[in-house]
Amino acid sequence: MTPRMRAMLLDRPGTPLRMVDLPVPQPGPGTLLIEVEACGVCRTDLHLIDGELPHPVLPIIPGHEIVGRVAASGAEVTGFVPGQRVGVPWLGWTCGTCRFCASGRENLCDAARFTGYQIHGGYAEYTVADARYCFPLPADDNAAGAAASLAPLLCAGLIGYRALRLAGEAQRVGIYGFGAAAHIVAQVLKFEGSEFHAFTRPGDVASQEFARSLGAAWAGGADRNPPCLLDAALIFAPAGPLVPAALRHLDKGGCVVCAGIHMSDIPSFPYNILWGERSIRSVANLTRRDGLEFLELAPRVPIRSEVVRFPLAQANEALAQLRRGDFQGAAVLTMKG
Ligand SMILES: [Zn+2]
Ligand SMILES: [Zn+2]
């Protein structure tokens, strides 16, 4: 009898995920069958469900912060052994030949495919992933909590890391939206001797307290002025008006980095707040090199992710709480409670 698995499926945007019973997939050539231990819940999953991302492959199992164990390898896979813990990120496949892939920018590949968007993801008991895009993960701790605490590194952590690197040399960094990505990048900033200033929704005292507990030099509402000019601002909240707001707090030569995949429209602003070689840029996806660098750095910090765990069946509830900003840190689905 074919083994079966539970999965949460998105039939079409605007509808809740639906628990389904499916055959466990078979690993094809070059892929791993992974028994999922934990899968992070990312804001990108909300954008997918809300229909804000173009051309999803439907129906789709979301989830691109996957931590699991190798259950089986397809033909031609090398470098992984059964039982090994691996991570599967958002970048699921690239062509390897386009001008972006050929120049170390596979994150911009013309034909890229993404986990939990065009390839079934980790809101399931098993998933299949291209082995070339999987990362080895530490496996010294078998507890479900250990797998859960690794999950947010695979997108929130990685995107925050890439955003920070693309911001350039920055001693004083503003962070807009103090959620999963922010609480990880804040730890990297402290580790590297930089200071961070946390901007939250006005009145969100709990998030401001959370930022201070991680060492924020200052924390306040996004309608407030920080105590100094900033070298960089990392924007993790999907609100376009934060872009000119952040620009106004930048010192000369500073950079605003927009780290989300979707954002509401950016209002017009006077040129003089951009003048002085200030810049605005976005960060898209990740490269495998980002992943290797960041996962090597994480235990040295060491990064401790603040995680709220939900069973797989409560994926819709986890997404609703993320939307409302009900918790600090990251939501993670765990397959075994
Ligand atoms: Zn390519
Ligand atoms: Zn993500």
Structure in words:
This protein has 337 residues and is α/β, with parallel strands linked by helices. It has 2 domains: 200 residues, Alpha-Beta Complex (Quinone Oxidoreductase, Chain A, domain 1), CATH 3.90.180; 126 residues, NAD(P)-binding Rossmann-like Domain (Rossmann fold), CATH 3.40.50.720. The protein is 21% helix and 27% strand. The chain contains 8 helices and 17 strands. The strands form 4 sheets. Strands 3, 4, 5, 8, 9, 16 and 17 form a 7-stranded mixed beta sheet that branches. Strands 12-11-10-13-14-15 form a 6-stranded parallel beta sheet. Strand 13, helix 6 and strand 14 form a beta-alpha-beta unit. The site of one zinc ion has 8 residues, from loops.
Strand content bin: 25-35%
What is the number of E strands? Answer: 17
How many domain modules? 2
CATH superfamily of the largest domain: Medium-chain alcohol dehydrogenases, catalytic domain
CATH class of the largest domain: Alpha Beta
Q: Ligands bound here?
A: zinc ion
Q: Low-confidence parts, pLDDT < 50 over ≥5 residues?
A: none
The number of helical segments is: 8
Proper CATH architecture of the largest domain: Alpha-Beta Complex
Write a concise synopsis of the structure shown.
The chain is 21% helix and 27% strand. It is α/β, with parallel strands linked by helices.
Task: Please describe the structure with a list of short key phrases separated by commas or semicolons.
337 residues; alpha/beta; Quinone Oxidoreductase, Chain A, domain 1; Rossmann fold; 2 domains; 7-stranded mixed beta sheet; 6-stranded parallel beta sheet; 8 helices; globular; binds zinc ion
